[in-house]
Amino acid sequence: MGYYVKVKNNVNIFVEDLNPEGRKTILFLHGWPANHNLFEYQFDRLPQLGYRCIGIDTRGFGKSDKPFFGYDYDTLSDDVRGVVEALNLRDFALAGHSTGGAIAVRYMGRHRGFGVNRLILIAAAAPSLIQRPNFPYGLDRARVLQIIEDTYNDRPQMLQNFGNDFFFKHTTQAFSEWFFQLGLEAAGWATAFIARTWINEVLFADMELINVPTLIIHGIHDKIVPFHLGEIQHKMIRNSMLVPFQFSGHGSFYDQKDEFNDLVAKFMES
User: DSSP alpha helices (H): ranges in 88-186?
Assistant: First the structure.
């Protein structure tokens, strides 16, 4: 069941709410540049196991409003807080992939993990997606600048290039086209502004404030958020568990979807 939640500044955030009567709730935050449909193969399965699964379209992406502002981590985490309060969510698991993982980390810091009893980080772009002085991990800054330039010059080609690096397992042409269309649903300005946020912001302090059981899932063949970042998250977050996915790239929720779904269900019951 899909509907809209109005957050600050009258921005409408699209929410897909599956199995509202489920005994436990998982709130999913998708990665860039897609939308909640990125988790299709979780939404197919996890509600059957009794879970309420809620997917949010980040502002600027999917069916949510696409204002020309608000693509910093503070505002994006505030949008999540607005949805959590509107739905009166308590004791839920917050699951974030890539940029969605970064938003989840900022939510845990800025909002002190309001309502969250478990955290699931999936190839999360934290504590910094790019390499910095004294942080020689992540992507080269020039690569992100190129993504921004390509977004403004030929966004469809940028999306195709990005999709080619996303998965480790072979995908059909039809699947690749489906993934490509998810990216096209976003606004170009939102796509570029989020990439700028990767450069402008870090999440070191936020990560130190995480105090709930945390599952970290990371594909060892990830070409977008290198596996080293998952290892750093594990070191920084108390009470965390890192599970390397041996046959996955950036999209472990599809590359090894059965193992992924089983692991999430097991974590929810732990």
Answer: 99-110, 141-164, 173-184
